[in-house]
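Let's practice the habit of predicting before peeking. Look at the sequence and jot down your guess about where helices and strands might fall. Then scroll down.
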Amino acid sequence: MPRFFYTLLLYLLLPFTPLKLLWRGIRQPEYLQHVGERYGFYGASKRTGFYAHQVRQPIIWLHCVSVGETRAAATLVAELRKRYQQYQILLTHATPTGRVAGEQLFGDTVLRAYLPYDVPGAVNRFLRHFQPGIGLLMETELWFNLIAACKQRNIPLLLVNARLSQKSAHGYARIGRLAKQGIGNLTFIAAQTELDAQRLESLGAKNIAVLGNLKFDIEPPPDTVEQGAKLRAILGTNRPVFLAASTREGEEAIILDAVQRAAIPNLLTVIVPRHPQRFDEVANLLKMRRLIYQRRSAMDESWGEVSMSSTQVLLGDSMGEMFTYYAACDAAFIGGSLLPFGGQNLIEACAMSKPVLIGPHTYNFAAAAEQAVAKCAAWRVKDADELASSLQRLFGDPDARQSMGWAALEFSRSAAGATQRVADLVASYLPQP
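Done guessing? Here is the structure:
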């Protein structure tokens, strides 16, 4: 049986997982916290955010692997809490940054835990402990022992906001029967686009519908405009501000090359790396380039325009402030797209009415990226030269910036409504407590 060999491989790898956590913990100490949860042990501990005996209400469980999925689920969590007040919401994650994002977004209104490794013993301990009434996996999280265990226990398990790139589809096709069995055992799949649905159907999906992308429903925090204005006052209201958001390995050097070639007078570049463990790495790059930079974590709000006047780069080494950065900038480049990482979420920048630049690699947001370009909400650049020329065009033409910003806002509102559709879907499978 294909799943037997999949499980055997996981058990063979399991003894090495503490080393993996230790290695990651060297750069990001949060990986060394809540370690027992990764093996399915959820004892009474203040660190878990709840005590075992406090899991009294029936559970609606959402798995949001990291930051992007957690933010995408924000409107859905709010809607589920409003509709189903007799249920507790459990968020599971795979990364510390996802867990921190959950804490920032929802505080103590939800339960939080790590999803265990996909071995039967850990999965069964997780399901026995929480006994969820329904499970929602976000985007592309397919864990075959977890799916099988939920089916065996008659727990409805839905894949929502589902997306599948051509590259991922080829990868799943290579494991044939295992992927077909796992995807076929999902209770329902809510796909983002028709193309995602077609790819999933080709791999064995049965109950599937296109319900749209939850990320179009995202709402900035209520104080975003105020916080953005405060930050902009610190950065300088009379100088141009360019934001490079969610940058990945190797992209910062390309972006700095483009900024240098653009030679925009008095430009302040704000760089926000996607992963916090890279903050120091990017700081070292700025030192090597002999650029005058400040770290957001070291900033004091008493700073004014004069103290920032000579600063060339602001390193955004803070968590949970992306909307504030968008509010404070004049134009934004969305990282993960200059190099083949698949691109990060461009919808948040569009929702803040900002002109958006993206690179050639956007397969994680393929449909959204193509639509944004088609509606003149985003420009696509292929390299440092094109990024430099696009910056010159944008910062040299305020009317073009404003027009592009309005197009971005209209685009972000054009495909809203997925939250309500997914919440209605949940109602179809949610057992009454």
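How did you do? Residues 227 and 312 are 21 Å apart (CA to CA).
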